[in-house]
Design goal:
Blueprint (H helix, E strand, L loop, with lengths): L31 E9 L6 H11 L7 E8 L5 H7 L3 E5 L4 H11 L2 E7 L3 E2 L2 H12 L4 E8 L5 H16 L7 E5 H7 L10 H10 L4 E10 L2 H5 L2 H14 L1 H4 L6 H4 L11
Parallel strand pairs: 1-2, 1-4, 2-3, 6-8
Antiparallel strand pairs: 4-7, 5-8, 6-7
């Protein structure tokens, strides 16, 4: 699910290495055109649907693709689901979204990278538009975002505010972000000093490299966090980030929306 605060830091840093992963030689980068990178933590319930959507959406893409699932310390069947769907699995033990995405990028062989959250459904239209933009010289970009399921009133109001702000600021939502591999490496990838809003910082960094586009096409992401958390919890968390400034983004404490134990989804669970 794409959800973050308005206040974002503006600098980059290093990242953590995946467990037992071997770095691919640079020449291997020419073998694949598009690398889809899916970070996942205990996503056995939704991951299969996401991977099938990627495979179907990319069926019309000219050139070779690969799907990389970064299993970040899952304790469920996430890895098994990824393997069943033919994805390459990179295992890390970070519990850190930025680090997990970077670990996948380090193993990616594609000249273009597409980051998709494990609870997000892509379409042939949005994937095709992203590839067309990259072929046309864009360094990267994002797209519109729709949320699945019935959402509480506070969630609908929050989305109505956040998404236009992100678009006005030319920022990509974390659930779908694409870029060239070369520009991703040039800016240093996702900032691993941050536990939230890393997609906004990367968007800013990529914009400094060249044309950064926001597509009219959309993905559909999960509304489970908005259903499982109260308005007080979500809005309170965002307010603490806004008030805390950069320091608040540099620690996992207080970011239970992203890093706390997953709650029952009232829209799906009995």
């Amino acid at each position: 699910m794409c959800l973050t605060a308005f206040v974002v830091p503006d600098y980059m840093s290093g990242c953590l290495a995946p467990r037992d992963a071997k770095q691919l030689p640079p020449i291997a980068l020419a073998v694949v055109d598009v690398s889809f990178i899916v970070p996942a933590y205990n996503e056995e319930r939704l991951l299969g649907t996401t991977l099938r959507a990627i495979a179907q959406a990319s069926s019309g893409v000219t050139g070779a693709i690969e799907i990389i699932v970064v299993d970040d310390a899952s304790t469920d069947g996430t890895t098994a689901i990824a393997q069943v769907h033919g994805a390459h699995v990179v295992s890390v033990n970070c519990r850190h979204i930025a680090a997990a995405r970077n670990a996948g990028a380090r193993q990616a062989r594609g000249q273009w990278l597409v980051f998709v959250d494990a609870d997000t459904i892509v379409t042939e239209e949005v994937v095709g538009a992203a590839i067309e933009a990259l072929r046309g010289g864009a360094v990267g970009g994002g797209c519109d975002v729709h949320f699945e399921g019935r959402l509480p009133l506070y969630g609908r109001l929050l989305i109505a505010v956040i998404l236009p702000v992100y678009r006005a600021l030319r920022l990509a939502a974390g659930c779908f972000l694409f870029c060239t591999h070369a520009d991703f490496d040039t800016v240093g990838g996702f900032d691993e000093t941050l536990f939230a809003a890393e997609e906004a910082v990367l968007s800013r960094a990529l914009r400094r490299q060249g044309r950064f586009v926001l597509l009219r096409e959309h993905v559909v992401t999960s509304g489970r966090k908005l259903r499982a958390h109260s308005g007080r919890e979500i809005l309170g968390g965002l307010l603490r980030l806004a008030v805390g400034g950069r320091k608040a983004f540099r620690r996992r404490d207080g970011l239970d929306i992203w890093y706390g134990e997953r709650r029952r989804d009232p829209g799906l669970d009995p």
